[in-house]
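Marked as duplicate of an earlier ticket. Keeping the data here for the record.
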Amino acid sequence: EWDRWLLMGLIGTAVGMLGFLIHQIIDSLIKLKWDLVENYLQVSKRNGTWSMGADVVIYLSTGQDGNIHMTWLCALGSGLAMVVLSSGSVLFFCPAGSPSGLPEIIGYLNGTSIQHLFNIKTFLGTFVSCVLAVASGLFCGPEGPMIHLGALLGCGLSQLQSDTLGVHLPIFTRFRNSADKRSFIMAGAGAGIASVFRAPIGGLLFTLEEVSSFWDIRLAWQTFFCCLMATFTTDLLSSSLYGFVYRGHFGFFEAEKRIIFWNLLDMNVLAFVPTILLGMLGGLLGAIFVSLNIKINKLRMQFFNSIPKLSLRKTSKLLETVFILVISCVPLVASLGSGRNFLALEVGCIFSFPCSSEQGSAAALLVENGKRGITYLFKRGTHEEFGYASLCTALAFYFILSCWTAGSAVASGLVIPMLYTGALYGRIIGLILVSIFGVQTNKYGAWIDPGLFAAIGAASFFSGVSRLTISLTVIMVSMLS
């Protein structure tokens, strides 16, 4: 069995390297996009105007020659270019890559035969579509495609043969059967989850709970080893690089960059009352989200199937993703004009709102890098940072746009939108408690914190949409400590 363990380790390492590469490319593209935008802005930094935490920059002028319209056109144009390439790579290069690949992987592992699911064109198209879709500013994440890509690596490295490339290597030939192939694909899918969330146990439980119907204890240990190698590889490579820029200290793992809640929090039994409410709300909103998404996709299929010409049908799907991105950029253009203040986060998302207004807060919550926004919502000790109007506006906007994006012609995931949506209504519940009981500074009332309930709300909505329980709990604990 040594060769099986060796292959599991190789698959885990390859998936970890791929996860690192995807995140580095996304960070680099986002930085490149906003570096282009900064050419039209004159930057002035000032402290204490309005703050979401660290890395807040206030832009006080309209840019060179006062042309804010060129600023917006540059931001929107770069996003549109990425979306067109992302959707085009799925529609015209690898149709099997749309939209996330996870349902297809689950179907295959449970006995369904799907053509072109594990070939090299699907891998390349899904990879390109995923990084461009996330970097463009669409309300999506890389998690679903990462599971698909991990499964593709599990299949490719275990079989070491490709009809597309005409390659048939005489190595690991004893694994070229349907049972072993299925086991390595399942391990690769679990390694994809482990690499994204840095949660090897969560990856193992995800495959057990969601992906596969065929299981034994030996396979469980081998899958866990694969997930462990994926997590370690991603952490090791990410320890010193950000956007392919070397930051030093290779192999030094900084806990505060991976764990959002580091300090332990004393808990009161009263905290279980809003927690139960959030659980019920997560189940209700999750059911609404799934039902609405199914209806949207049915309408989408009926509309596109009514178009007889294949090339025109694919072009229409591409134009839909372009339209979604334009709608997603509403916060950038809601108040164009000169002489207004501009709020920008470290990632560079620019909003044309007065920085101290509720509209400015809502726009900041719709930052194009979803992970950054989630971190702000989870932040503890920020009881009055966002108001009801900004949270409710962002919740409605993000809920509808993420539901519409899911199923469009780009390789994208739903995990970031699920966490973000849940964090928004969780923080609203936390604000209600603050309004009732006030800001508590003593240890007995420290649990009344909007950031804490944002994390609980994120888990509730994630569970309500995905129907995951045990693996989700482990993933959230790995993220939040």
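See parent ticket for discussion. The chain has a mean pLDDT of 79.
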